[in-house]
Design goal:
The chain is an all-alpha fold. It has one domain. About 75% of the residues lie in helices and about 0% in strands. The chain has 8 helices and no strands.
């Protein structure tokens, strides 16, 4: 049986998990969720250069908020990893930024890699998606996709 939440908690969890309603896009809500993060990556690269600890704190806070809100939204919306939940894509895309220079080229390449890895779910992302419940299960596979996307982008940019 799904947990019951007060009106304020429901509204906050849904607003965060759907990234202000972006998750309600009629087609490709995950892609639109990942697009929300793109303008953040160059700015966060500047923060990472100035303060790696600051970047780590922002990333940790984002992941914690994503796990909390995705878990609550999953209860409210019903079903595992409901398509309206897109904060996991934001968190995964921001995690990819750990590896990237603050350029729009790197950001665009990472976006493409992230979407490929998010859909493909290479090991262990598929395992996390299938076996881990709650918010951590919703967000975990996207964090793995973000790691893969960041590393693949870093490698590609070094090779070209």
């Amino acid at each position: 049986m799904p947990r019951q939440y007060g009106t304020g908690v429901r509204a906050l969890a849904l607003a965060l998990a759907t990234v202000g309603g972006v998750g309600s896009m009629p087609i490709a809500p995950g892609t639109f969720g990942a697009l929300v993060a793109l303008p953040l990556l160059p700015a966060l690269a500047g923060l990472r250069a100035a303060s790696p600890a600051g970047y780590a704190l922002v990333l940790a806070a984002l992941v914690l908020v994503a796990v909390w809100s995705a878990g609550r939204a999953e209860d409210i919306l019903g079903g595992h990893d409901h398509s309206r939940i897109v904060i996991d894509e934001v968190a995964g895309q921001v995690l990819a930024g750990i590896f990237l220079p603050g350029t729009w080229l790197a950001t665009g390449v990472a976006f493409v890699f992230f979407r490929v890895f998010d859909v493909w779910k290479p090991f262990p992302a598929g395992l996390v998606d299938g076996r881990v419940h709650g918010g951590l299960g919703v967000v975990g596979d996207d964090l793995i996709a973000g790691l893969y996307a960041g590393m693949a982008t870093w490698l590609l940019l070094r090779l070209v």
